[in-house]
Structure to design on (402 residues):
């Protein structure tokens, strides 16, 4: 039997390969980079573990629970909440859902009002029966958040920057249904990072697969006339093709122009420091009305001590601009942390022009793939998240088997 060819070894492609392997179906997984993982990779650098872009694993994602051996990832957890920039100081805010003790402090500081809690509780009831990211809620996330009439402080200092960080989008233009889906995950689940970095997730999926079925450092150049043509000149015969490439690459292989604005970019900078004072395993959110280029920053080694060598801490800073330099970032951070010179050493930055796909742009790609008998998978075929990458990978494999 000819193999099923999977193009791309990001989470979706790896997941598809795992499902085919379990079902004893022959496959070849082809990845153009020298390592697997796509957007979920980590690397060792001067004793630090750096993820290719700041991201977290939501342990409440159903497909994550089903597909990963979470215990083996040795997860470290964030506290539920964030540091907020209020009146030119950092104030910790813990989720009232998971830290009831901190609620009085939040009331006292004016971060949240009683009416906000009531509205959140109503919203929580709603998402118990409807938090499907693909339901057809016409409003954008920002329009929906505004329509909920939360107090100004809660909305502007917490909700808005928190979701700007999740969506990597200042405008919060993703559909409101996606906002509800993420809200449910954050209210009910925990955000975590594996001891060995986010790349350990991809590695766990790879480790199960027979090495002879995985080809790294080889790019699929074309998908014409029932053949898969590789960058090394090889031509593969296949039973079926699962196209698990990132959206731009998938569009190129299918010869479809990609609409402008379909993809959101980001850049994560890593710095080493001797210490970081703020307590808590929390993200620091910067309100975008501060005219800041920075979305959020965090002391990652407070959450996962293994990501920094002894005596050092690892700071990550994420921006939406990819043409910003570490010098500019440091100058901004000084404004938020010390009003003087910050003694941080720049380690490395990861520019990710294709960070997250926006919903609503993929109809033509899906139609063209369908016409050519190619099975599409990847986060963009559902919604931007690891849950969708895992779920769509499984779906693609099941459809290839049927
Ligand atoms: C900065 C950042 C932060 C994020 N934060 C979160 C978060 O906190 N929580 C969350 O759930 N999700 C987050 N995400 C999203 C999550 O990482 C993605 O949804 C998921 O990794 C997408 O996986 P994928 O397999 O669909 O695509 P990709 O990871 O893009 O994989 C596609 C693969 O195809 C390969 N490829 C492309 N073309 C070819 C070709 N011609 N031949 C061979 N191989 C090819 C690519 O090299 C790549 O490895 C974040 C993403 C980024 C970038």
């Amino acid at each position: 039997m000819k193999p099923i060819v999977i193009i791309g070894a990001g989470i979706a492609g790896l997941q598809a390969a795992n499902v085919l392997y379990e079902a004893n179906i022959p496959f070849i997984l082809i990845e153009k980079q020298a390592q697997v993982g796509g957007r979920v990779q980590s690397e060792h650098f001067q004793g630090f573990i750096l993820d290719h872009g700041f991201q977290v694993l939501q342990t409440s994602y159903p497909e994550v629970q089903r597909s990963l051996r979470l215990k083996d990832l040795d997860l470290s957890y964030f506290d539920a909440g964030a540091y907020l920039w209020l009146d030119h100081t950092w104030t910790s805010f813990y989720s009232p859902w998971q830290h009831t003790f901190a609620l009085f402090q939040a009331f006292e500081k004016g971060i949240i009002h009683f009416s906000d809690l009531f509205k959140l509780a109503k919203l929580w009831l709603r998402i118990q029966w409807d938090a499907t990211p693909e339901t057809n809620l016409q409003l954008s996330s920002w329009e929906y958040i505004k329509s909920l009439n939360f107090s100004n402080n809660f909305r502007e200092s917490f909700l808005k920057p928190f979701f700007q960080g999740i969506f990597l989008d200042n405008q919060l233009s993703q559909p409101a249904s996606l906002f509800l889906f993420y809200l449910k995950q954050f209210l009910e689940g925990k955000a975590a990072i594996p001891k060995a970095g986010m790349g350990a997730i991809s590695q766990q999926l790879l480790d199960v697969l027979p090495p002879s079925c995985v080809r790294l450092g080889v790019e699929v150049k074309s998908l014409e006339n029932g053949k898969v043509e590789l960058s090394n000149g090889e031509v593969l015969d296949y039973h079926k093709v699962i196209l698990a490439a990132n959206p731009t690459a998938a569009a190129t292989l299918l010869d479809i122009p990609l609409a402008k604005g379909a993809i959101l970019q980001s850049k994560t900078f890593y710095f080493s420091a001797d210490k970081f004072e703020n307590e808590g395993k929390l993200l620091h959110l910067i309100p975008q009305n501060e005219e800041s280029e920075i979305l959020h920053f965090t002391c990652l080694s407070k959450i996962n001590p293994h990501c920094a060598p002894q005596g050092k801490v690892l700071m990550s800073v994420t921006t939406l601009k990819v043409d910003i330099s570490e010098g500019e970032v440091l100058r901004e951070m000084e404004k938020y942390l010390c009003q003087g010179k910050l003694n941080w050493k720049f380690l490395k930055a990861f520019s990710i022009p294709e960070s997250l796909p926006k919903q609503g742009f993929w109809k033509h790609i899906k139609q063209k793939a369908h016409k050519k008998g190619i099975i599409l998978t990847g986060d963009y075929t559902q919604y931007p998240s690891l849950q969708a990458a895992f779920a769509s990978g499984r779906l693609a494999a099941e459809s290839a088997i049927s």
